[in-house]
Amino acid sequence: MTRETRSKEFHILAAFFALFVLFLYGPLSAILILSFQGPDGGLTFPLNGVSLHWFYNLFEKQAVGDFGASFRRSFALGLMVMVANVVVALLAGLAFRNRFRGSTALFYLTVASLVVPSIIISLGIGVVFQQLGLKPAWHSSGFGAHLTWTLPFGVLIMFAVFNRFSPAYEEAARDLGATPWQTFRHVVLPMIAPSLIGVGLFGFTLSYDEFARTLMTSGTYNTLPLEIYAMTTNVTTPVLYALGTVTTLFSFTIILVALAIILVLRRRQAKTS
Amino acid sequence: MRVRHESSLPLREGWGGVFRLLLHHRGFRNLPEGRQMAMIASTEPNERIGRGRSRGLRLPFAAICYLQATPLLLILGFFFILPILMIIVVSFWDYDFAGLYPDFLTMNYTDTLGSWVTWKTYLNTLKFTVLTWALTLVIGFGVAYFLAFHIRTTTMQMVLFLVCTVPFLTSNIVRMISWIPVLGRNGLVNSALIKLGIVPEPIEWLLYSDFAVVLALVHLNTLFMVTPIFNTLMRIDRSLIEAARDCGASDWQVLWNVILPLAKPGMAIGSIFVVTLVMADFSTVQVMSGGQSASVALMMKNQMSLLQYPAAAANAVVLLFVVLLMVAAILRVVDIRKEL
Asked: What is the ipTM metric for this complex?
């Protein structure tokens, strides 16, 4: 009896979940297909032939803004944010394991950085740079603006990881005479490595796709999301979709690589313990 | 709560043996064999010295914490606290087309708060926020509930969860654009409806309308609900549900009286994300409404592009105040630090 009602509930929820997944991926697959539109095709279905025309078009400089250069900038910025995110979040996570004077204030400051609207931070950093007479650029003001968004994620992840991390392992290492550095390098680091990869992945992808915080802080040269945003208003050919497809596939690749590394690390850990 | 190292010093005498045992089984094996031997060799006779050293380290221990927290504090100090303070200061300044002039005027505030446009824009933004919040809460809870209670194996749970997560790590703008071929005048939905004979001509309000804005906002932000709710649902002790069943509760009663109250913290955290993101959104409103709808942040962005920074700053202060009030209201439901 209960079994039957449960399975009914299951089917309804499974259908709901399937619809949700379709809702998430349906539109994305639409632009994936339409980016292979023939040279005479438009922004909507049906496909007017199949070609790589719009992908070629994407890499010609005059057709759209300078796609290659903005991609390189976004990629470099993503890597910078990723490294800074991992290092700073790890250090802060280690600090938060102990209650020190001001730790609660710093914690809430970090959460606040997540909650304060992006455009306000963007405007604030823009005005600070202007008043200090500094030139905003994607690698200075843009970099800092991105960190105010990625660091809270990193710090909260590390906070959660260390909340569940038993100090017994370190105590044991210390009792066996390991120096603090050895304890960290050979005991703590291998155990939290998968989480660190996660923090890095967040840092990279959030920065690579960040738009509102870059708006006032990127200076003269656009990052990729700014470039795409500009295109939404003035490009009316499927080259827009080709660009969307390329960046999305790039993001997917990064995510898959990060997941693969996490899986390998987990498996290796399971084997040794 | 964790026990602090210093205070547990006397305990360590007794625990030491247990820890040594643990170490042999876990982390210690990760070390190369030579180093294991070296470590054992160095521990046994040096036990006292080792302890003395840790006592010597106790004073700079606090200093190490501060050092570790410094990079975070510096970055947030320069790129978060300083800009916010600057915005508050600049919101009182005078300006013209040529530049900003330090002053103490309330003009920027009276202009903003005295205009009907501002109030209408706030109402519009609130409308988007409430609709998006309600929809993401229902959808997010449904998805998280399905994943947490109806998927039996952890592997399958993780795979399905990742399926939900991956699109959220791709560009928001690309995901907005992707609605154009679906909702447009000649888009998939309209052509399907016409082919099926449901409507005689294309529906105009599917794209570039408030409907499209809310749809895209839900599309972009649901994960921020799914993740925290899924997290709290996974931590619910399953025996509570069994106990409720044994006491004769129906499925609905279990959901309403056991699961929902326990999922509140997750729902609160998700709500904070969705509310703050939607309140400050301008790109979705601009792209999906085709420039026909307004939001507070879009108003700010327009002022910024006209270099009216003090006016934008006054708007920013008001918006910040409203958003923080909303967050404070949600935080009454939950203590985040406890939930991580």
From this structure: 0.86
> Structurally, how many domains does chain A consist of?
1
Question: Which residues make Cβ contacts (< 8 Å) with residue A272, sequence separation at least 6?
Answer: B29, B30
Contacts with B170 from chain A: Cβ below 8 Å: 28, 205, 209, 247-248, 251-252
> Domain of A159: which CATH number?
1.10.3720.10
B180 vs A28: CA distance, rounded Å: 11
Q: Does A89 fall in a domain?
A: yes
- Nearest-CA distance B43 → chain A (Å): 5
Q: Which domain holds residue A124?
A: 65-234
Give pLDDT, residue A1. Answer: 41
* Residue B2: per-residue pLDDT: 39
Whether B304 and A123 have beta carbons less than 8 Å apart is answered as yes
Q: Is B284 exposed, middle or buried (0-12, 13-18, 19+ CB in 10 A)?
A: buried
CATH number assigned to the domain covering B115-339: 1.10.3720.10
Q: What pLDDT digit, counting tens, does each position of A69-78 carry? A: 888 899 999 9
- What is the enclosing helix (H) or strand (E) of B195? helix B188-195
B81-137 tens-digit pLDDT: 999 999 999 888 888 777 777 777 788 888 888 888 889 999 999 999 999 999 999
Give the C-alpha separation, A11 to B19, whole Å. 49
| Nearest Cβ partner for B20 among A175, A212, A251 | A175
% chain A with pLDDT above 90: 22
Up-side HSE of residue A208: CA atoms within 13 Å toward CB?
26
| Highest mean predicted confidence (pLDDT) among A141-150, A224-233, B153-162, B245-254 | A141-150
| Distance in angstroms (rounded) separating the CA atoms of residues B2 and A217 | 41
